Structure formats: C-alpha cells, structure tokens
Amino acid sequence: MMDYCNASNAATGSKFDANANVENKNITTLIGELPKSNFIRLNRRMLTDRIKVMYGKEIADRYIELLNNHGIKYAKRGMCNT
After folding, report:
1. How many CA atoms lie within 13 A of 58 on its CB side?
2. Dihedral, CA atoms, 23, 36, 77, 24, nearest 10 degrees?
3. pTM score, two decimals?
4. Rounded to an integer, what distance in angstroms lies between the CA atom of residue 61 and that of residue 68?
5. Burial of 13 from C-beta contacts in 10 A (0-12 / 13-18 / 19+)
6. Who contacts 20 (Cβ-Cβ below 8 Å, separation ≥6)?
7. How far is CA 47 from CA 31, 32, 39, 67, in A?
8. Which of 10, 54, 65, 74 is the most interior residue, by most CB within 10 Å?
9. pLDDT band at 41 (very low <50, low <70, confident <90, very high)
10. Residue 81's pLDDT band (boundaries 50, 70, 90)?
11. Res. 80 pLDDT band, cuts 50 70 90
C-alpha cells in the first residue's frame, strides 16, 4: 500500500496492474488495488485444483512450480472472468 501511495501515478503504483487505465491516484483507485493479490491466489488455486482433477497432482504441482519460478506468466483474467 505504501508503494502505491508513494508512486507518481496509479499505474506505476500498482503491483499487479501496471497498465491501469487511470490517470490519478485517489482512495477509490487504492481500494481497487487491495483485493487483487487475493483474487490472484484464488484463481491460481481454482486452476490448480482443476489441473489436478484433469491431469493429476504431479502436473498441478509442476504448474505451481513454473508459476513460482516465472516459467510461465499468469494471465490476470481468472477462470471466472472469461
């Protein structure tokens, strides 16, 4: 939150959405930043669970390993947002 407050604008202050389509920082844009990390974790968990059902635990674990090591980039849009 402090990085966001100290940034020159909302896009550079956003940890998860650097191409934010807002010009000014304010309390409304800050509030929009707060749940993003939780949504990303939830979407990753849902996708990991789905991979586990479809392909097994080993592939699901490999998916998490690749995400954590930046082997693949995770799309910002979650399974529920498509």
Report:
1. 0
2. 0
3. 0.58
4. 11
5. buried
6. 10, 11, 14, 29
7. 26, 23, 12, 12
8. 10
9. confident
10. very low
11. very low
